[in-house]
Amino acid sequence: MVVVNLILAHFAFGGYSPSVGGDAAGNAMSTAFEKLFMIAALGLLGLLSVLFLLIRRQGFRIGLIVVLALNSFLLLTILSLQF
């Protein structure tokens, strides 16, 4: 699940610049928000992965897998907004 999330994050935030044709300030602001969302998504993915490795109870692990699946759906939503 973590690898799927990393691949989706790579495609969702890698190399696509949606800020074409605007003014310089607007392009910089949209790029900054894109980087902020990328850092937040990867930070959440890292936190959930570390928690999955540290917690040994089966119920909590299932819950973390569900949250990782929801994160992958959010990354798919971001990816679909680009096209």
Give a description of the structure:
This protein is mostly helical and 83 residues long. It has 3 helices and no strands. The mean pLDDT is 84.
Distance between the termini: 24 Å
Order of helices and strands: HHH
Helix percentage range = over 70%
The pLDDT mean sits at 84
Q: What is Rg?
A: 15 Å
According to DSSP, the number of beta strands is 0
The gross shape turns out to be elongated
Spans of at least 5 consecutive residues with low confidence? none
Beta-strand content bin: under 5%
Structural class, by secondary structure, is: mainly alpha
Structure annotation, total helices: 3
- How would a crystallographer describe the biggest sheet? none
Topology readout:
Layout: H1 2-13, H2 24-54, H3 58-81
Helix pairs in contact: 1-2, 1-3, 2-3
Summary, kept brief:
With 83 residues, the protein is mainly α.
What labels would you give this structure?
83 residues; mainly alpha; 3 helices; 0% strand
